[in-house]
Amino acid sequence: MTDVTEHQSDGVPVRVPVILGDGRYRALLTPTGSGTAVFDDYLLTGWADDPCLDEHGLALVIRALDGGRPWSACGTPMAVSRRVTVVPDGVQLDSAEGALEARVTVRVFDCAEQRTLRLRNRGTTPLVLEVTAVCDVVLNPPDAQEGHPAFSKLFVQTAWDAQHQGLVALRRLRQNGEQHPALALCLQGAPIVSYETDRARWLGRGRSAAQAQGLWAALSNTTGSVLDPVLALRVRISLPAQGEAVLVATLGAADTRADLSAALRAEGPIASARGGRGYPAAGTAGADHGDACGARRCRRGCAGVHRGGRRVRDASRQWVR
Fold first, then answer.
1. How far apart are CA 222 and CA 229, in angstroms?
2. Residue 126 has pLDDT above 80, yes or no
3. Parallel, antiparallel, or unpaired: how do β-strands 127-136 and 229-239 relate?
4. Is 242 helix (H, G, I), strand (E, B) or coil?
5. Type and span of the H or E element at 176
6. Which of 248, 238, 233 is nearest to 194 (CA)?
């Protein structure tokens, strides 16, 4: 495991879950760099409030084509350690593998989350890298997802969006009046070489997220009505000795697919970080619960935010929304 203590940052180390965003879109990051995303009262990506299942959130996975092992700069912890800090415009994650250094800056705008990956090759030989942005898909209220997660996955459709060079996920409506957000993932900075939306193909048989078959194997470019959805985009870049490269992954949500274009532009003010689960954000010691939360429908439990969209029970044992 690579030690990243030499990476310097002016930010404050993250020791409790941090929330980015106080509008419709909110992202939660844990001290290890995993997390989830919420749009209104809907979970966009998977979440389990269990440190033993620390494998959720949008991941950026890097693999050198000379036989190197895959490692993640954010999302599912994989192979390397990270330094996670709160900076003025978001959250920063620093990691390294050998001579390759990675810095991810996470920012949240009105309806999108943007992760900027900066790679630096400090070695004396060039590198050819594959970078994969991947997240699982929920698009459902937390109680519906928890009640029957396998059934919930059956109604998600995926598609390739040629205009934005990204993937789109939609939930098929099962009854009149039902409404679910649309989700899109884009990876900019290099041409997309392949993609995947079938989680069974991505993971492989009996594998965890940190050992997914898709980390090494070619992606199938599958879209449609998959039984278990995932969004995965892959690019390939050449990094010369002492060279740098920048990639930008954007996860956007909107009420309809037609509205995703505006979300993916990731415009507007950048949200500042706040502490999760009633804790003040790093560097804001002494802030009270209201200062740290900012949730629109908070009744001290701050459900939907403090647990990444997962509702919790208040003192009366009723679901807090």
1. 10
2. yes
3. antiparallel
4. coil
5. none
6. 233
Q: pTM of this prediction?
A: 0.80
Characterize 269-291 residue by residue with b for buried, 16 or more Cβ atoms within 10 angstroms of its Cβ, and e for exposed: eebbbbbbbebbbbebeeeeeee
User: Mapping DSSP to helix (H, G, I), strand (E, B) and coil, where does residue 165 land?
Assistant: coil
Q: Centre a 10 Å sphere on the Cβ of residue 268 and count the other Cβ atoms it contains.
A: 12
Residue 212 to residue 197: CA distance in whole angstroms:
13
pLDDT digits (tens, 9 = 90+) for 156-214: 999 999 999 999 999 988 777 778 899 999 999 999 999 999 988 998 887 888 888 89
The whole-angstrom separation of Cα 309 and Cα 43 is 6
Average pLDDT value for the chain: 79
Query: Residue 285: what pLDDT?
Result: 27
d(CA 135, CA 7): 26
Q: Hunting for tokens 């003192």 — which residue is that?
A: 315
Angle among Cα 40, 44, 49 to the nearest 5 degrees reads 95
Torsion sign over Cα 267, 103, 44, 234: positive
Cite the DSSP H helix spans in the chain. Answer: 142-147, 149-152, 199-203, 260-264, 289-293
What band does 47 get if pLDDT is binned at 50, 70 and 90? confident
pLDDT tens by residue, 230-250? 999 999 999 999 999 999 999
**Nearby residues of 173 by Cβ (< 8 Å), 6 or more positions away:** 179, 180
- Identify the residue whose tokens are 């939907």: 304
How would you classify the pairing of strands 156-161 and 182-188? unpaired
Average pLDDT over residues 59-81: 87
SS3 string, 192-208, reads: EEEEEEEHHHHHCCCCC
pLDDT exceeds cutoff 50 at 277:
no
